[in-house]
């Protein structure tokens, strides 16, 4: 940990676990270090980064002020998987916010992440530690699949606790806006901000990706290499039919399988199966979503068949990731 903190302090890149996914960290106050993140990930410079902080002092280094409503959200959800858009501090390098007036900030709950931030003694800018557009990493091995040779260090702490990224909100707008559904559900946010609304990508006229209020919103993202086919309404019979169709075309299917369907497994015996979790256990589905996509990808399947979870609770976040991952082409939307 001490060595990793030194590397960060000296302007290097360190991948580290948070409670959501692994982040690729650099000193947020060092413009050159921040630039290295974009290079390592192949991330376009118009897509801004989340800054991670461990205490009030680090928060003050990156924001100009904390409006009252944001303070309430902080009281309710930090440390934890909630990212707030706040007025940025002047000293923050432009690269972090892609030149925008607000910076995305969160205090992670993972004790190792907090310890690293304290040892490094600087705020850390960190996107998810994957190649741009690919599945977010929930294990150190997955970080290395994408970034080996491009980073200075990684802190391996096994599988992350939650598995899906933080929720991104701006409570400085009227009404407050939810940009990215995540581990803090809309229901929980509404307990503090009853008028919170989910941002919808405008369909017409097409807005350029880099001028979206939060550039991640409309992007092809989280994608496995295999083709991802989403199934709704989801049933074991629908999956079995698709597996048979693919098999007759000589294509290998992988299945993100709800545990309830395991008894029907002989119907898709030619497919590679990842036992995803119980259909109603959304925390388990969130915990295992990205590892399932990675495992099936590594197994070399041609197509991943995935049932869409229901729309309540964490289902919004799960569906958001899956729909973006299944987006047919690399261009935005
Ligand atoms: O759980 C997480 O949030 C993980 C861990 C590592 O903390 N991080 C993460 O970062 O998912 P990333 O870069 O993969 O996603 C950040 C999202 C993107 O959709 C980005 O467009 C948005 O936050 N974002 C970042 N800064 C912003 C800003 N200044 N204004 C608007 N949106 C911003
Ligand atoms: Mg990401």
List keywords for this structure.
333 residues; alpha/beta; ten-stranded mixed β-sheet; four-stranded parallel β-sheet; 11 helices; 14 strands; 31% helix; globular; binds threonylcarbamoyladenylate; binds magnesium ion
Please give the structural blueprint.
Blueprint: H1 2-9, E1 14-17, E2 22-27, H2 31-41, E3 50-52, H3 56-62, H4 68-77, E4 82-87, H5 94-97, E5 102-106, H6 111-120, E6 124-125, H7 140-147, E7 153-154, E8 167-170, E9 177-180, H8 186-190, E10 197-198, E11 227-231, H9 236-248, E12 253-258, E13 272-277, H10 282-298, E14 303-307, H11 315-325
Parallel strand pairs: 1-7, 3-5, 4-8, 9-10, 11-14, 12-13, 12-14
Antiparallel strand pairs: 1-2, 2-6, 3-6, 4-5, 8-9
Helix pairs in contact: 1-6
Could you report the average pLDDT, rounded to the nearest whole number?
94
Helix count from the secondary structure assignment: 11
Given helix and strand content, the structural type is alpha/beta
Total strands: the figure is 14
Beta-strand percentage? Answer: 15-25%
N/C terminus separation: 40 Å
Q: H/E element string?
A: HEEHEHHEHEHEHEEEHEEHEEHEH
Sheet with the most strands: spatial strand order: 7-1-2-6-3-5-4-8-9-10
Low-confidence stretches: none
- Main β sheet profile: 10 strands, mixed
State the shape. Answer: globular
The helix fraction, in percent, is: 25-40%
Distinct bound molecules: threonylcarbamoyladenylate, magnesium ion
**Gyration radius, rounded:** 20 Å
């Amino acid at each position: 940990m001490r060595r990793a903190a030194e590397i960060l302090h000296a302007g290097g890149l360190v991948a580290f676990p948070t409670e959501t996914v692994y982040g690729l960290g650099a000193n947020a106050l060092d413009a050159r270090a921040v630039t290295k993140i974009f290079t390592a990930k192949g991330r376009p410079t118009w897509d801004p980064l989340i800054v991670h902080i461990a205490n009030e002092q680090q928060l003050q280094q990156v924001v100009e002020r904390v409006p009252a409503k944001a303070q309430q959200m902080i009281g309710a959800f930090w440390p934890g998987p909630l990212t707030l858009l706040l007025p940025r501090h002047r000293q923050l390098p432009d690269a972090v916010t892609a030149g925008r007036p607000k910076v995305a900030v969160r205090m992670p709950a993972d004790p190792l992440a907090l310890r690293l931030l304290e040892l490094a003694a600087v705020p850390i800018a960190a996107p998810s530690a994957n190649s741009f557009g690919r599945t977010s990493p929930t294990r150190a091995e997955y970080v290395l699949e994408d970034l080996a040779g491009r980073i200075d260090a990684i802190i391996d702490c096994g599988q992350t606790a939650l598995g899906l990224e933080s929720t991104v909100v701006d409570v400085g707008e009227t009404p407050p806006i939810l940009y990215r559904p995540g581990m803090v559900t809309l229901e929980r946010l509404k307990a503090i901000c009853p008028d919170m609304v989910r941002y919808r990508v405008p369909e017409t006229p097409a807005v350029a990706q880099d001028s979206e209020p939060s550039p991640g919103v409309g992007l092809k993202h989280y994608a496995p290499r295999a083709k991802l086919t989403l199934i709704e309404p989801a049933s074991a019979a629908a999956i079995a039919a698709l597996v048979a169709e693919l098999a007759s075309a000589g294509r290998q299917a992988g299945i993100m399988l709800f545990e309830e369907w395991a008894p029907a497994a002989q119907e898709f015996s030619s497919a590679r199966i990842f036992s995803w979790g119980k259909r109603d256990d959304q925390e388990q589905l969130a915990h295992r979503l990205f590892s399932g996509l990675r495992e099936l990808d590594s197994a070399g399947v041609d197509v991943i068949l995935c049932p869409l979870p229901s729309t309540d609770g964490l289902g919004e976040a799960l569906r958001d990731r899956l729909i973006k991952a299944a987006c047919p082409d690399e261009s935005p939307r």
